[in-house]
Structure formats: C-alpha cells, structure tokens
Amino acid sequence: MPGVYCDSVYYLQSRGYKLGKSIGEGSYCKVKTATKTYSNGVTKKIACKMIDKRKASNEFVNKFLPRELSIVKNIKHPNIVSVSDIIDSHDYVYLFMDICEKGDLLDYIRNKGALSEAKAKVFFRQIVSAIYYLHTLDISHRDLKCENILLASKDCVKLGDFGFARCCRDAGTQRRILSETFCGSAAYAAPEILKGTPYNPKMYDVWSLGCILFIMLTGAMPFDDSNIQEMLKVQTGKILPFPPKYSISKSAKDLIMHMLEPDITKRATISQISQSNWLKEIPKPEHFHFDFILSQYRSCPKRS
Known about the structure:
Keywords: ATP-binding, Developmental protein, Differentiation, Magnesium, Metal-binding, Nucleotide-binding, Phosphoprotein, Spermatogenesis, Ubl conjugation. This protein is an alpha+beta fold. 38% of the residues lie in helices and 17% in strands.
C-alpha cells in the first residue's frame, strides 16, 4: 500500500510538514524528526509519531488510540510532551509534537550510571509535577517507565507516550473507574496489576514512580520480572534491598518504600509525594544551575 502513504506525505506537505529520519520504531508506529513551515516562512523542528492502523490490533485502534488522541489534545504542561497537531488519515495517524533529541531517561542512566540525589531530585520533581497535573484532571498514564521520560534539555524532562492513558472518572456519574486491562511493562507493574484484579489506575502510576526513583538512585531495577510469581512474592513481602555501594538518604528510601507499598490503602498519593520530605529538601548545587533547581522547587505542586 505504498501509494496510500505517498498520498499522505503530499497532504502533509500541503500542511507545511516535512518528515525526516526515524528516531524510534515500534511494532505499529514510528517516530520521525519533522519540520513545520508556517505561512510567515518560519520553520520549526518537531517530532512526528506515525501510527500505522493496519498493523495495530483492533483493540488498540478502536479503544486505546481514541483515548490517547482525546487526552493529548486537551493537556498542556511544561513537563509533558505537547502535541500540536493530529492528522488522521485512512491508514495512518500522525501526531506532531515537541522533539526531545537528548534521548530518554533509561539511556541517560545507562550512559551515566546512578544519579546523585540532587540530580535525581531535579528530574523527579518535574515528573511528579506532570503526574500531579494529570491526576488532578482524573487522568492516569498507566505506562510510566524510564523509556517514556524524555530529555528536552540537560535539566528538563518531559513525559511522553499516552498510548495507555485513560480517564479515571465516569463523565456522567462522576464515579471513580477501576481498570482491568494489563497495561505497561511488567517491571514497573504494581502487585494488583500482576494479580489481575481491578485496580485504581492512579495508584498504579504511583507504584511506577517508585520504580523510576529507585532506578534513578541505584542504576538498577527494583524487581526481577523474569519470574512474575516470584516477583509478586518479593513485592508483597516488601523485600527491596538498596545496593550498599550507594549512599541513599533515609528520606529518599522512605519515599520509595511509601510508593512501593503493596497495600494501596497505605500507598502514597501523588499529593503526598509532592509534599514528601525528600522533595521539599532543596539540593546543593552541583554541575548544574542552582537557579534552575530553585525554580523547580518553587513550581512543585502545593497542597490545596
């Protein structure tokens, strides 16, 4: 079906878009660099996520994709990848968005190793701010992992990939909605997800945040997902040894354990995370600008 794609490319060009090289690829989507040329002649470099509906499952096309498009059109936050335009053709959906050329958080940690608490705090505060914003809108991401946290600059991260995101409240009844679909990656999955029971999607996000912070500070995964049953035992038994070679503060460990609490009635909420002792501690300046750190501290959500 190359003709269909070519027709789409010509249409994109008529809208001022020009696609470049591929910078990421999945089973049914590609991410390419792109440019948008405006009527005044100004050209902006952006990214384009191309979703091939022919390769995706019917469930994705009819259930998850409409949710993603509905959500990304209506959210705006400095630490969330902003989608500026959506073009839905017969076979492809094109999402034009911010470009984050410095890679993702997982690659950053693989290249640099475990982060200092000061650096981790700068990144994590921004991630928490983005999730706080989403949860305030009753939206859950449901696929939080280091690969979906993108570096826009040296000290700025943005949350991307809303393919599994959903609203958590019924628009008509205003009642909270529990999820039943297994979403995201097993390594970041909360015990209630692995058990296959209906779950509160916001609390799933919180568990994944705990995994992310553990990875930031240790350079390792908190749980081994090669054996799900054993992983579940470790999770519910609260068996989480911190590597002794890293000097991790008590406040950081306490926050991680509060997020990785198997009992959801005791697990931290995003509001509690944003007000945690660890995040409220202003880090000492290291190799990055203290003014930036202070601005992030001041922008951290406050309890209403």
